[in-house]
Amino acid sequence: MTKTWFITGTSSGFGRQLTELLLERGNRVAATVRNSVDIADLKARYGDRLWVGNLDVTDAEAISSVVTMAFHDLGRIDFVVSNAGYALFGAAEELGDAQIERQIDTNLLGSIRLARAVIPHLRSQRGGGRIFQISSSVGQAAYPTMGVYAATKWGIEGFFEGTIPEIAAFGIEVTLVEPGASRTNFAGSSADGAPVLDVYDQTGAGDFRRAIQAAGLKMFRGDPRKVAAAIIASSEVHPAPKRLTLGSDAYELVHSALAERLAALQSQKDVAFSTDVDE
């Protein structure tokens, strides 16, 4: 059965792969990009099944306007994919305030803005719908030089942890997608390069940078088309999984982080309970 999807950030990466696969399978897609030229080839190929909106997710008014137009023009949207974002690399001291603010404005605030814009429309349509939030395995753990990027992913996961029970009664489901490192232009999508400080060469930051350089493509195990296919397959799963971890590296990272966190928590049980009010 044909479904309608709304996807942000469709010029490349997971957004582009999702758009292509969905259109190939006969679905309708409302695709947003900052420059419509980037998906002109898909528009020429698929015509009216591809609705295109120009959107920068840092523009709150534009998000509201584009979302409203998409729901008006298409009548019903079954799935919303909040995908727009980019990666910022650098040790905390290396990054500038403007770089950090732009990262948060795009990845975290942009995702929250989109959710707030689509929820009323999903709530008002029969049967609700599903939001896929593209998070990251780094939303459960973090690597050196990725602290600010991780903060945006931990932040959006926290936002949806609180929002999911608010909107469940309206038939709106949410899946947080946590991919590992995939062979997209993800690493190159950062328009802001941080100057590398020599003092960090013999720290975890330097070790991580060297590991990436040594590993090359081996560091990026994920196939973006397979990731996109897994997201589409998940749309048929009911009830919706709250999290969808994709990639062997993602599984290993998240599993290790959660196991370590749980062990640390359990070791502190007596201390935790000791701080309750005495009855």
TrEMBL record:
The keyword Transferase does not apply. Gene3D superfamilies: NAD(P)-binding Rossmann-like Domain. The keyword Transferase does not apply. SUPFAM superfamilies: NAD(P)-binding Rossmann-fold domains (SSF51735). It comes from the Bacteria. CDD domains: 17beta-HSD-like_SDR_c. Keywords: Oxidoreductase. PANTHER family: SHORT CHAIN DEHYDROGENASE (PTHR43976), SHORT-CHAIN DEHYDROGENASE_REDUCTASE FAMILY PROTEIN (PTHR43976:SF16). Belongs to the short-chain dehydrogenases/reductases (SDR) family. This is SDR family oxidoreductase. It comes from Rhizobium calliandrae.
